[in-house]
Structures are given as C-alpha cells and as structure tokens.
Write a structure and sequence with these properties.
alpha/beta; Rossmann fold; three-stranded mixed sheet; 12 strands; globular; binds nicotinamide-adenine-dinucleotide; binds 2'deoxy-thymidine-5'-diphospho-alpha-D-glucose
C-alpha cells in the first residue's frame, strides 16, 4: 500500500481516485482537513476498502510513526500543504508550519521507518514530494522556460515555504541516502478545485452574477495543466523516477490570465447562457494587483518526457471544457464548499475590490 498526505484536497483527491481506478494497491490518506480539505471529494470511494482516511497532521510525528508501523507502506506521496498564494500574503505562519515544519517531521518519520526496513522493502521504498514551479520565481516574456536546473528564487511566502521543503527533501537524499523524488508542477485545473483559485473562482462568481476580479492588467502568464495529467506524471515518477532527481511537470500551455477568464466566460455563454443574453465577460473587473505578483511561469517538461515518456493527455481546450462542465454538473459540491469560512475569505480578499 501507499500513504498519501493531503488527499482530501484538490490534486490529492484526484490522485487517489485515479490511483484506485488503475490499481488494486490500497491507499492510506492522511489529511488534516483544513478549510481546503473536503471529504466530499472522496465520496465516490465510500465503501471501498482500498481507501482508508485518517484525519491528522503531517507534523504529528507520533501519528505518522504509528501509521507507518501499522500499514508498512512502500511509498509516501506528500501533497499536504497550504497552497494559496493570496492566503500566504495575508497570513504566512500556517505555510511555514505545514509546508516547512510539517514536511520536516514527515521526512523524519519516513527516515526512521525507511532505515528500519530490510532487503527489497528498503530498496523499493520511495518518498515523493509534490512541489510547484513557483519555487523558480518569475520570468520575463523572453526568458526560457524553467528547467530542473533553474536556480530557486521564490517570491511569495507560499513559494518560499515550498522551496524550503524541497531543499529539505533534497538534503535527506544527499545526507541520509533517502530514496526521494520531487516533482515541480505548473498550475493545475479540473474537478474539485477549491473556488479561491482563479479558474473555479471565475466559474462560481460568473454563475452567481458577481464580478470576475482580474488582478492588475491580467497579463500575468501561467502554464496550465489538467489535474489528471499531473496525477499521471506523479504515478510515472513514482514508478520509474531516478532517486534524488527532480522532474518538472507542465502542460506546454502558457496563457495570460485574461485569456483564461475570457475562455471560461465563452464556455459558460455556450453551456449555461445568462438569462439576459449578455456575455459573462461583462462581469470582468480589473482589481488591485497581488503584492509581489510573479509575472510569468513557464515549465520546460522535456526531462520527464524524454526520460520517463510522460506527456499530458489533455490540451487546454479539452481540459477547460471538461472542467467548466464538471462545475455545472456538481452544483451541490460547489454550494457546500462555499461555507462560512469561504465567505470570510472572500470578504477579506475581495471586499474592497470586487
Ligand atoms: P489544496 O489546498 O487543495 O489541498 C491541500 C490539502 O492538504 C488539503 O486537503 C488540506 O486539508 C491538507 N493539509 C493542509 N495542511 C495539512 C497538514 N498539516 N497535515 C495534513 N494535511 C494537511 O492543495 P492542492 O492544490 O491540491 O495542492 C496539493 C499539493 O500540490 C501542494 O503541495 C501544492 O503545493 C502542490 N501543487 C499545487 C499546484 C496547483 O496548481 N494547485 C501546482 C503544483 C503543485
Ligand atoms: O504554479 C503552480 C501554483 O499555481 C501552485 O503551486 C499553487 O498552489 C496554486 O495555487 C497556483 O498558484 P497561482 O497563484 O498561480 O494560482 P491562482 O489560481 O491563485 O492565480 C492564478 C493567476 O490568476 C495568478 O496570476 C493570480 C491571478 N488571479 C487569481 C485570483 C484568485 C486573479 O487575477 N484574480 C483572482 O481572483
């Protein structure tokens, strides 16, 4: 079996669903259930004995030690993190606590467990750390895309905390020989994406008749990858990645934010037209920019393609259409995630702007 952390969140839940679709190997899922953790994402696995959920913190050494001793996983996949850049600007502390201190405790627990393994169990053990392209900082329009050798230059408390965790993971390989793998992925989108992030926020706000808040001039560029493609990349790295290596994962899909928002509006115009016949694009509102906003991210995913044969299955056109359709078909999920906590966040972040 494998132990997966943070798998009640967006990418982790997609990963577990896809994993159990393709494999009989059981999963133990440890998630703290912060505001971003949602067991509804895993409702389709109800009654499936291959999935066991444990509410807990990756920084809780006693709990992780106990789970490792009890379940003897052959791998740990670490998704658990505070993941939202804007929240890290309002309050960085949770990011340091989970992304840095939590990852450290998880690594320590994994090291103790791995060092006590013997024979093939020890040889085959893996610790896969899921990270982000944001650790590389920002690019100008003419810069080449990030490769695995681009120096780290994180600019937000979120990306600095992820960079820090990546360094710890690297150090555990170099110092202790721990069998680690790291993936650095670009912006994901797809089912179960919490509507604090750009794409689901735009869908949810558009349908509610609210403003679509675009930061600054909307010309910041991100590289977008459908979440299921990120999950397949992680499975492939876990299966065949070289120990101690890092792999960039991306969709070869660089787009400015305003183009993303207009695409979402056009799809909604087609699939759920506004009652007044006007376009949802009329709701676009330019608001104050994010402090320290990175201008451009771009991932060069040549290494994972060349060495492991991975490439994304979806284009942006197919992925975004599936995503918008998913939100239209899952109104109950959308309603439930917009709890009291969510409304407080929206007031704090957009109250004065939107
Ligand atoms: P998310 O915020 O949707 O989910 C994070 C999950 O981690 C939640 O279920 C939360 O409850 C859980 N969690 C938080 N703190 C925890 C703790 N201390 N112990 C245990 N569980 C805890 O995030 P996501 O978008 O699914 O991202 C997952 C991982 O992928 C993160 O490490 C993130 O940095 C990385 N990543 C995300 C993207 C993206 O576009 N979303 C891109 C690249 C990398
Ligand atoms: O690049 C990978 C990263 O992508 C992950 O590591 C992060 O966990 C994930 O949250 C995401 O970070 P971003 O900051 O790029 O994602 P977000 O959806 O918050 O914003 C995407 C872009 O859209 C960014 O340039 C900011 C802009 N934006 C965002 C929001 C929420 C807006 O213009 N308006 C908004 O309301």
């Amino acid at each position: 079996m494998i132990l997966v952390t943070g798998a009640a969140g967006f990418i982790g839940s997609n990963f577990v669903i896809d994993w159990l679709d393709q494999s009989e190997e059981a999963v133990i899922n440890v998630d703290k259930l912060t505001y971003a953790g949602n067991l509804e994402n895993l409702a389709g696995l109800k009654g499936d004995a291959r999935h066991q959920f444990v509410q807990g913190d990756i920084g809780d050494r006693a709990l992780i030690d106990k789970l490792l001793a009890e379940h003897k996983p052959r791998a740990i996949v670490n998704f658990a993190a505070e993941s939202h850049v804007d929240r890290s600007i309002h309050g960085p502390e949770d990011f340091i606590q989970t992304n840095v201190v939590g990852t450290f405790h998880l690594l320590e627990a994994a090291r103790g467990y791995w060092q006590a393994l013997e024979g093939d169990d020890r040889k085959n053990f893996r610790f896969l750390h899921v990270s982000t392209d944001e650790v590389y900082g920002t690019l100008s329009p003419s810069d080449p895309a990030f490769t695995e050798t681009t120096p780290y230059a994180p600019n937000s408390p979120y990306s600095a905390s992820k960079a820090s965790s990546d360094h710890l993971v690297r150090a555990y390989h170099h110092t202790y020989g721990m069998p680690v793998l790291t993936t650095n992925c670009s912006n994901n989108y797809g089912p179960f994406h919490f509507p604090e992030k750009l794409i689901p926020l735009m869908i949810v706000n558009a349908l509610a008749g609210k403003n679509l808040p675009v930061y600054g001039d909307g010309m910041q560029v991100r590289d977008w990858l459908y979440v299921k493609d990120h999950c397949s990349a992680i499975r492939r790295v876990l299966e065949a990645g070289q120990l101690g290596e890092t792999y960039n994962v991306g969709g070869w899909n660089e787009k400015p934010n305003i183009e993303i928002v207009k695409t979402v509006c056009a799809l909604l115009d087609e699939l759920r037209p506004r009652a007044d016949g006007k376009s949802y694009a009329e709701q676009i509102t330019y608001v104050t920019d994010r402090p320290g906003h990175d201008r451009r991210y771009a991932i060069d995913a040549t290494k994972i393609h060349r060495e492991l044969g991975w490439k994304p299955a979806e284009t942006f056109d197919t992925g975004i259409r599936k995503t918008v359709a998913w939100y239209l078909e899952n109104e109950a999920w959308v309603q439930h995630v917009q709890s009291g906590d969510y409304r407080q966040w929206v007031d704090l972040q957009y109250g004065a702007k939107a």
